[in-house]
Design a protein that fits this description.
Elements lengths: L13 H19 L21 H12 L2
Length: about 70
């Protein structure tokens, strides 16, 4: 499992940033590993929570610890 946090500037939407990260990540994974059948590297969606307060940061850390 891989969980990543991305900081995004106002000029790009979080949805577009997620699409870009998944595209580059998939390309790198596909060059290294072979996937068979209908398996996929990513879930269809992604959590797009804003981590902009101490409380939201603590919740995100707790989420990762419990995975």
């Amino acid at each position: 499992m891989c969980i990543f946090v991305v900081s995004v500037v106002d000029e790009i939407s979080i949805q577009n940033a997620t699409r870009i990260v998944k595209a580059y990540g998939s390309r790198a994974l596909n060059m290294t590993y072979k996937m068979t059948g209908d398996k996929r590297w990513w879930t269809k969606s992604a959590s797009m929570r804003f981590i902009n307060t101490q409380a939201s940061l603590e919740k995100a850390i707790e989420y990762v610890k419990n995975q």
